[in-house]
Design the sequence.
């Protein structure tokens, strides 16, 4: 039984990577002011556990780097999100909208902290996209470098991760039970198991 | 006649006319990464520029210059200036060069900007070079040869394939949802609402597909732990190449140590 589970996870991981990619593009296509490029990581981690989340995060980071080289330096963020989503998914966070929202906010804060530490040590406090401009404006407004790095990264990540977690909740809710039952985190979603 | 040529194509190792492209993928990766270590430790913008030129030269030697230069310029011309401008405009410093309202351009900011913009050129060069000189299937083949599981090969190759497949599917789903009356344009609320009906059928369809695929692959002994065979294979790495890689690595490391210490 255990071996079977591993089998299905292997086939789910590529989907997570591809959905991350497509989700990010869809957000650009619909001109949304969000990244939404971690939905695949969240969802696969939520149903298949932290290890699967870590692998999806790693592969996503490497494949996104081809079009967006800066993301390579934020590898730890991708891994952190995969692991956290997997762990929280096991605890049943993605079974209710409000829980998912709170978890999204929490993950946004943690990822924001790790992201701003990377920005601070590698990029002198400037983020690598719009975050960098925002942080730069805060710096000119008189905030110290570390404060503007933290504020810019954390707010951007929070605004992005809450909708991501909510969308994850909606998708997980619609996955058929016969699929869920074969996956490691199934006990969180199936009531009568 | 065509069939015979097709069959014979798989009887010999996959070879390119170019000697550089025939190098073992892992050795190429090793070469690129060791070269990238030089600017990491020396931290001079002249070195960064020199290395970027070296990467371009490698692309020329490999006969992939045309494939290399277009994506490289697209990336570098966006990222390099962005890194420079953000630092030049906002970095606080002592020596004022130019002042416009609350924006103060300082000499420190400009120096920092040049340093970071050029190191990003190296990163862009490295990534584009990897994609144009190493085929994904060759890379996973080389990984399997040094003992990685074929499951890892599947995950890597399938991810790359699925990105393309799902991209095509997205536009199909978007069109069909639009024809059912879901608005994908208009104010921001409409556009956010359109996101879920497009993404979730895509995702759920892919997950169902994964289940079917796992059964189909198991029927073909995917989960077997026996050694698998390969349809296309690479030539065995020549001894000269192995020695050359080790020598180059040692030279680069001793150069870095010499430069940093002396």
Sequence:
């Amino acid at each position: 039984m255990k071996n079977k589970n591993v089998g299905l996870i292997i086939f789910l991981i590529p989907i997570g990577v591809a959905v991350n990619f497509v989700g990010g593009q869809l957000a650009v296509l619909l001109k949304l002011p969000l990244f939404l490029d971690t939905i695949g990581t969240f969802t696969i981690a939520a149903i298949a556990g932290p290890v699967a989340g870590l692998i999806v995060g790693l592969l996503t980071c490497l494949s996104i780097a081809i079009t967006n080289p800066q993301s390579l330096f934020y590898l730890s963020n991708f891994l952190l999100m995969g692991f956290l989503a997997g762990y929280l998914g096991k605890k049943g966070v993605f079974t209710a909208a409000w829980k998912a929202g709170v978890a999204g906010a929490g993950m946004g804060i943690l990822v924001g902290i790790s992201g701003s530490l990377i920005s601070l040590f590698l990029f002198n406090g400037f983020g690598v996209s719009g975050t960098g401009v925002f942080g730069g404006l805060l710096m000119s407004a008189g905030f110290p470098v570390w404060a503007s790095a933290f504020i810019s990264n954390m707010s951007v990540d929070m605004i992005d991760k809450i909708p991501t977690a909510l969308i994850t909740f909606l998708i997980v809710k619609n996955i058929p039970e016969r699929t869920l039952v074969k996956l490691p985190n199934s006990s969180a979603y199936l009531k009568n198991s | 006649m065509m069939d015979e040529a097709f069959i014979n194509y798989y009887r010999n190792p996959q070879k390119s006319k170019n000697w550089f492209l025939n190098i073992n993928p892992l050795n190429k990766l090793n070469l690129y990464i060791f070269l990238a270590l030089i600017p990491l430790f020396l931290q001079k913008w002249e070195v960064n520029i020199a290395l970027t030129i070296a990467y371009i030269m490698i692309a020329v030697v490999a006969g992939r210059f045309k494939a290399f230069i277009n994506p490289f310029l697209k990336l570098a011309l966006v990222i390099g200036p962005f890194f420079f401008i953000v630092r030049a405009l906002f970095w606080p410093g002592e020596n004022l060069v130019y002042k416009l309202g609350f924006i103060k351009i300082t000499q420190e900011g400009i120096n920092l900007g040049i340093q970071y913009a050029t190191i990003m050129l190296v990163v862009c060069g490295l990534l584009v070079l990897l994609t144009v000189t190493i085929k994904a299937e060759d890379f996973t083949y080389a990984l399997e040869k040094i003992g990685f599981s074929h499951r890892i090969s599947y995950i890597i190759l399938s991810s790359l394939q699925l990105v393309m497949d799902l991209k095509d599917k997205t536009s199909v789903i978007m069109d069909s949802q639009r024809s059912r009356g879901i608005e994908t344009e208009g104010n921001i609320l409409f556009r956010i609402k359109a996101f879920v009906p497009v993404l979730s059928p895509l995702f759920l369809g892919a997950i169902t597909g994964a289940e079917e695929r796992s059964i189909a692959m198991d029927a073909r002994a995917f989960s077997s732990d026996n050694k698998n065979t390969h349809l296309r294979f690479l030539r065995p790495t020549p001894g000269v190449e192995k020695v050359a890689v080790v020598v180059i690595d040692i030279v680069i490391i001793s150069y870095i140590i010499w430069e940093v210490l002396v």
User: Anything to note?
Assistant: The first strand of chain B starts at residue 96 and ends at 100. The two ends of chain B are 65 Å apart (CA to CA).
